[in-house]
Amino acid sequence: MKAIVQDRYGGPEVLEFRDIDRPVPTDNEVLVQVHAAGLHRGDWHVMTGLPYMIRLVVPSLGLGKPKVPVLGMDVAGRVEAVDARVTRFRPGDEVFGWCDGSLAEYACAGEDHFAAKPAGLSFEEAAVVPISGFAALQGVRDVGEVQPGQQVLVIGAAGAVGWFAVQLAKAFGARVTGVASTTQVELVRSVGADEVIDYTRQDVTDGTRQWEVIIDTGGRRTLSQLRRALTPNGTLVIVGGEGGGRWMGGFLRNLRAPVVSRFVGQRLRMLVSKERQEDLEVLRELVEAGKLRPLIGRTYPLGEAPEAMRALEAGNTRGKIVITV
Predict the structure, then answer these.
(1) What is the three-class DSSP state of 42?
(2) Are 305 and 103 in contact (CB under 8 A)?
(3) Which domains does the chain have, with CATH numbers?
(4) Core vs surface per residue 258-277: b (16+ CB within 10 A) or e
(5) pLDDT-based confidence at 244, cuts 50/70/90?
(6) 3-state SS, residue 323
(7) Exposure check for the chain: N or C terminus, fewer CB within 10 A?
(8) What would the pLDDT profile of 104-159 be if each residue is shown by its tens digit?
(9) Would you say 294 and 271 are in contact if contact means Cβ atoms under 8 Å apart?
(10) Which residues touch 6 (CB under 8 Å, ≥6 apart)?
């Protein structure tokens, strides 16, 4: 089968489009014929192996080269074959979920990595939901504990986790303010934000306004800046860790947050999202209820994955990038 393979860390030039063996399902696994694979910022970190600390904490990464040579996690497609012990799926079922190595014609993972594809969504739309959806759902519901009537600020609202977080906070009854650049204001408004602030014109951390919950997916502001925008007993949820150096990236801020939180009234939390089948079902239900809508910015065929990764790195796509197979 054809797949996007990397034998070393680096930029998009390390990605090769070549033939490898098709996986065989064992141990309650499902083999999926991939129709679409969504890209997210984590794929860039896996490709580059940066910051270096992630090579110690991400199971698919090794110190010198990737342990899993095929890139990609988000996936949507049709079940091709199942292990004899699988009970939830059968060949022909349309599914979405996550796995190691979705940038390929076929991908394999345990049956608990998949759910039925949401009714009404294309494979491309379904493929952008899982990983970013997990981060947004767990950030808003579990760490942020967003309640009806609360004032919620989503920084980086034009990114995939951001616009999912806006929609989820609205679904939980909050009044949501999104922060984005000038060119992305309308996108954020289109997913339901009550208010959108253009960060090139207004600094939301200048202390003139405060929110009860802040979901920060931007990764560039300091803890002291973010605390100025937070009510005295508010909750800050830090998602991801962009910026910083090659060793720790932006994660030093994440690690400092719970330490500072011990000495102040505000709850400062770092999100470590987890892939969970029960949350995948929640996301499917929210999509089918019309409360969660995925956005696709651009699609690329499998063989053009290096170009797609360059577009991901540039970060100027309105919506999520999808690889079609």
Answers:
(1) helix
(2) yes
(3) 2-129+294-324 (3.90.180.10), 132-271 (3.40.50.720)
(4) eeebeeeebbbbbbebebeb
(5) low
(6) strand
(7) N
(8) 999 999 999 999 999 999 999 999 999 999 999 999 999 999 999 999 999 999 99
(9) no
(10) 14, 15, 16, 47, 66, 69, 71
